[in-house]
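ARCHIVE RECORD
Type: protein–small molecule complex
Small molecule: 5-O-phosphono-beta-D-ribofuranose
Source of inputs: curated submission
Record status: active
Notes field left blank by submitter.
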Amino acid sequence: MASKSGKSSVAVIMGSDSDLAIMQTCIDTLKDFGIQPFVRIISAHRTPKAASQFAAGAAKKGIKVIIAAAGMAAHLAGAIAAQTTLPVIGVPLAAKEGLAGLDALLSTVQMPGGVPVATVAIGKAGAKNAAVLAVQILALSDKNLTGKLSRLKTSQAKEVAKKNATLK
Ligand code: RP5
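STRUCTURE (tokenized, with ligand):
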């Protein structure tokens, strides 16, 4: 949701345009909940100053949750978490080269004490879960989102029941 002032409550940042194909799932899931995210390509390694500026200014922009995705030595989520008090969700991605996402998973999840990054699964499932987790955080103070989350649970359960029924 863009708030009345047109501000986005969720930022989706990623290390490269090569991450966008997977992160589109995250963006689309947020839009399904009526949230228009602030989306940017920002690299902890290639644009470290832009990463710092974004982290320092995110709360003032009205952002409440940051989703940060990267592959390989994925330091983006951790570098952002180091410089903001907003909750940061990290999405590890399997880049074209490297270790099929295990490199990014370990780089994202193994944060030192005091600087958490809520790390989701590698790839598309993680991209979707990052969006749903961000919505769950926002839903703590937004009953409209709570209702939408309940409907997601119901529709997922129906899907499984339908698949189960086809087995009989
Ligand atoms: C990371 O390096 C990016 O997040 C991307 O997953 C990976 C490869 O980037 P490109 O070389 O495709 O730009 O920083």
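CURATOR ANNOTATION: The beta strands are 10-14, 38-41, 65-71, 88-93, 118-119.
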